[in-house]
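Table S2 (continued). Query chain:
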Amino acid sequence: MQRRSFFAALGAPALASQTGFAQPAAAPRNGLAPQKIASMEFIRVEGRRKALAGVNNQYQTQPLHIYDEYRPRPYKDSDSPQERETATNAIYLSIKSADGLEGLYGPIDREAATAADQQLRPYLIGKDALSGETLWDQMHRSNRHSRRGIYMMAISAVDNALWDLRGRFFGVPVYRLLGGPTRASVEAYGSCLGYSVDPPLAGKRAAQLKDLGYRHQKWFLAYGPGDGAEGLEKNVQLVQALRESVGPNVDLMFDAYSGWNLDYALAWAKRVEQYNPRWIEEAFHPEKIESFVELRKKTSIPVASGEHFYGRWEVHDYLRAGAISVVQADPEWCGGVSELVKICAVSSLFDAQVIPHGHGVHASLHVVASQSPMTCPWIEYLINKMSSYHHFEKNDYHVVNGRVTLPDRPGFGIELDPAKVEKRTVVKWT
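Corresponding output:
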């Protein structure tokens, strides 16, 4: 698709609705003819990739691990890992206007794709793809359950695809539509999910990552209340080993994935404060806001959470209560680029930082790049996951000396690579 110039867009003709649903008349906005949505498709792509089997599969503590039958055995990397070819697939959302302009976003979670196809597509066909605020508000008002969960994830997928379409319409990256870049590259923190938490191995890995330029690293704690005093000691030993390995000038963050209770979190925090963690993340289920408040009051370690926040209202409740100092809303779950920008504005009122959860890279990078570094200093880069997550795309992201250079392609610059796609199917749930 050839880039659309702003002046060409001025002459774009108004187009008839392509749907049987009743639609209000669409008037040109600011002299621009509307880009009416003609189709919304979920594309499943399949192929094969190489993967190293037997390593980097360390689990993290989870809420279910208080039950003996759900608590896994201690993990150990294989002494002889092997590279294998494995099947892989991903879902992308394609939204096209009546005159052929496409917005593309993915990978998309299956549950979000299902809800979007069943619930949102009827609202979108025939609407103006350039009317982002209107469409977001209408989607959010269209269902009693839209305020959180899978429905908000569906809104996120649609919103992000529409931002890509608008970027391609004007021929600029999304971060320029958001106000322009605040820096030429964005620092990434190395998120170490999957790496062994055996203290000697973890310490060695952390030193290697430091040499690669990762000045900030997040490690995933493997033990919780169900593992007793022995598990707590292992969690403390990990922090000690990492700090001794990287020295005082590398930020170390820790993620408990909602697997703890307040007493456990306070016991851990008391033991590890001397190692100066940059934050403890998601120690509790998100509905336990008072536990976050108490933890923040009783430890010097900053408290982070938010990957399971849905919308600016929930973020505001946490910040007003003094529950957290780092907001980790994910633009692929919290309402998309449109909502994450609003979350940044709310957070700036409380001098809280927004460091988005890194389910993907596209939306997070563009939002962070458009915001003040005071509010959005870094992105999360899940090192193991991102080595294959964008496998089907021509233009992958690379962290060089701990930073990601901003792309200059229109929209998010997503382009599927035919050489990697062995099978392409339009998936429908309606």
